[in-house]
Amino acid sequence: MIRVSAEHGLEVDLGGTRIGLDDYRGTRANYLFISHAHGDHLGRISSSTPVLSSDETALLAAVRGVALKVSSLADAELLPTGHILGAMALRLSGDLLYTGDLCDRNRGPLLGFDPPKVRTLIIESTYGSAEFCFPPVEDVMGVARDAIEDCLKRDIPVVVMGYALGKAQHLELLLAGVGPAYICPELKRYDDIYRLFGVEIPPKACLANRKDKGLLEKGPWILFAPFRSGRSSFNKYLERRFGARLMAFSGWACKRGYKEAMAVSEAFPLSDHSDFEGLLRVVKRSRASRVFTTHGFADELALHLRGIGYDAQPLPRGQRTLNEYLEGD
Ligand SMILES: [Zn+2]
Question: Using CA atoms, how far apart are residues 121 and 140, in angstroms rounded to an integer?
Answer without folding.
Answer: 31
